[in-house]
Amino acid sequence: MRVILAEDSTLLREGLVRLLEEEDHEVLAAVGDGQALVEAVAVREPDAVVVDVRMPPTHTDEGLRAALEIRRRWPQVKVLVLSQYVEKKYATELMSGDVDGIGYLLKDRVAQVGDFLDALERVGAGGTAFDPEVVRQLLARTSHADPLARLTGREREVLELMAQGLTNASTAQALHVSQSAVEKHVNALFDKLSLSHTAGYSRRVLAVLRYLGS
User: Which residues form the HTH luxR-type domain (predicted)?
Assistant: First the structure.
């Protein structure tokens, strides 16, 4: 995969460059601010970008705004966003559009190399990858408390894993149940949340995340 990195911490940026190159990804550029990221994408046309939410000059949302601009101008470029903390506003904004090829991970997840690389591969393939903690906090803070309260404990677990971007097969493996059981839970929770379960996998995830973020 051809990747551009945007991270203002030199140590983390160089560590990510080395990690990705060791995994046979091609790092086209590694920059330290959002504007430089957008400029690099315009010139190098990567398959994916990995970008920190907070970067110079204000260390607020420069990285996120760059990610949103990239999605608008180059929708074919996949985006994996990194954040130090769960920031609901930023997560919701990122998830408010098409989430195919989108990921949002906490930086702690980068230290778990396998999880980080799996998320990048999933996003690069056009899937989704949302940090479990991000999903849990969105679920806990959603304004749609009554419909969510109707879910059983197992349905809530399935919803969390589905929102992270896992397939039914992966969810079944994580919960140690059959895939048919997961499919039944998926159908039940979408009925309870009044969300269509006839669309494709990524669109179902989009529907869930829009619901949680509204």
Answer: 144-209
Report the SS3 class of residue 166: coil
Cβ(13)–Cβ(36) below 8 Å: no
**Higher-confidence position of 197 and 176:** 176
| Span 141-156, pLDDT tens digits | 555 555 667 788 898 8
Give me the phi and psi of 99, to 5 degrees please: -95, 5
Residue 66 has pLDDT above 80, yes or no: yes
Gyration radius of the chain's alpha carbons: 17
Q: Which residues contact 198 (CB under 8 A, 6 or more apart)?
A: none
Mean pLDDT of the chain: 83
Peptide bond preceding 132: is omega within 30 degrees of 0, i.e. cis?
no
Query: Which among 80, 108, 82 has a CA at the least distance from the CA of 165?
Result: 80
